[in-house]
Amino acid sequence: QVQLVESGGGLVQAGGSLRLSCAVSGSIFSSSTMGWFRQAPGKQREFVARITRAGSTNYADSVKGRFTISRDNAKNTVYMQMNSLKPEDTAVYYCNANERSVYWGQGTQVTVSS
User: What is d(CA 25, CA 2) in angstroms, rounded to the nearest whole number?
Assistant: First the structure.
């Protein structure tokens, strides 16, 4: 059974940093494209960043230059380093694994105060 468990969210002041982690159980990690999405109150879930199994990355324009996605295949974990956080980054952040099926974590809250 595949499970994705996010951690690392919290409350931070504008300009601060957080590092999100997503640990994946099951055998799919090394063959999956891993992604981060977020959903702010009253808004649709939106793409933030993704990393392929080969390590290629892409980012939403709103986070380019501030967020960095990475993966550790030995630990079955994907990370997202978030720097220079802004109040508009406040959302629930979800980890996503895309192999032949799509899997989601339960989300972790990130709140950025002004």
Answer: 5
Q: How confident is the model at residue 51 (pLDDT cuts 50, 70, 90)?
A: very high
> What value does the mean pLDDT take over residues 27-35?
91
pLDDT at 1: 85
Give the Å distances, CA to CA, from 18 to 4, 53, 62, 93.
19, 24, 16, 12
Return the C-alpha torsion angle 65, 18, 38, 31, nearest 10.
80
Residue burial 14-53, b: 16+ Cβ < 10 Å; e: rest: eeeebebbbbbeeebbeebbbbbbbeeeeeeeeebbbbee
The answer to whether the beta carbons of residues 81 and 67 sit under 8 Å apart is yes
Kind of pairing between the strands at 33-39 and 91-98:
antiparallel
User: Is residue 34 within 8 Å of residue 102, measured between CB atoms?
Assistant: no
Query: Minimal CA–CA distance to 93: which of 15, 30, 25, 12?
Result: 12
